What does this fold into?
Amino acid sequence: MPSEQELQISPIVQESVMHNSRTLYNLQSLTASLFGVSAGILGLESYSGFLFYLVFSLLTAVLVYVLRVAPTSLAGGKPPLDTSRYFRSPFEFWTGGLMNGLAGYILTWTLFYGLVRA
It folds into this structure.
């Protein structure tokens, strides 16, 4: 939790936090659909398909963190795992995309699986 002095020096702007969350949601939805296309073309079934989605969704979160959040927080002197300045909660950042993109993943996975295997 930032101290009062830190909040006065660099305040957390709720509009920016909402924008970051919305952008992350859009990225996760798009990548979930692309992962569904990949899983369908590869012909993955059952647990292997869901494991594929889980691994690549977490990999996407790691890449977003490494490429966008960590350099910004390191430049400001914050600990690298502190995502609360940019998103509502660390839980939302790391696992929010798992449930947000699941429906799109399943739809595109089954569509492309059916197209390739038919």
